[in-house]
Each structure stands twice: as C-alpha cells, then as structure tokens.
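user: Please supply your own:

assistant:
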Amino acid sequence: MAPLHLFAYSTLLGAELYQSFVMTKLAYKALPNSSFTTLQKRVFPVYFQGQTLLLGLIAFTLPPQGPKSVISSKSNWIPLTVAGGTAALNLFVYGPRSQRLMIERVHQVTRDSKHSTDPGELSVEMQNLNRSFSRAHAMSIHLNLMTIIATLCYGWQVSKLNFGVVR
C-alpha cells in the first residue's frame, strides 16, 4: 500500500499546484474570455472530482492499516479531514455555483449586448450576477487554497512516516 499511497499523494499535490497556480493563470492570459469560460467549466469539475477521489485513496492506503492508521493519529486525520471537507465543498457547492453563475453572466452579456467588463453602466442584473459570482468564486478559491495547505501539512506528516525502508 505504501507505493500507492505515495503515488496518490504526489499526484494530488502536483495536480493541485499545477492547476491552481500554472494552468489557470496561463489559460486566463492566453484565451479570449469566452474560451476561458468554456475551458474552466469543463476542467474544474474534473479537477474537484479528482482531488476528492485522490484524498479518499490517500486515506484508504495510509500505511500500515489504511483508514485505521488515519484515525489513530491526529496529525493524519486533521489535515486529511480539512482537505477532504474543503474539496467536497468545492465539488458539491461552490464549484457548481461558480460555474452556474459564470454561465448566467455569459447569457446576460447576450441579453445586455454588453460585456461585464465593458466601460459604462452595467445592467442591474449584470451587477448582481457579478457580485454573486465574485463571492462564489472567491469562496471556491479560498477553499482550494485551504485544501492545498492541508495537503501540504499532511505531506509534512508523510515525510515522517517509516515505510519499512531499511537504511
């Protein structure tokens, strides 16, 4: 189980860091707004699903006894619980809410014939959508950051584990 555990952890951490700090920023700068929106609404549900599944796999494969090993130590279950909870909130609440509001804003642009970032007065509907989207998106970003921090804290614990390696 130890190799699978380390593989799951390293995959999770790598995906979190790459998606959060590299891909999203590059895509935002390189793509037109509509293309970026289309990409994000496809990528982030998969990212949040993978994040949640990998956290489950990590808990299931923790040496030597999987879930029993997680429960037996605060230093294991606290960061995994925080990471799992924040990832689940993004998967089931804030990710879908942000996506729904992002799509509603695109439709409002069509109704208003004016983009949400165009100069001048925005419609009341667009102002409300912008405010709602900003809140949901900020919550999703903060939850993702909390998940990454909890993953890093757990990694600190993983670095202390003895996987039966003879020195």
Notes: Helices lie at 2-30, 33-61, 67-71, 74-112, 124-158.
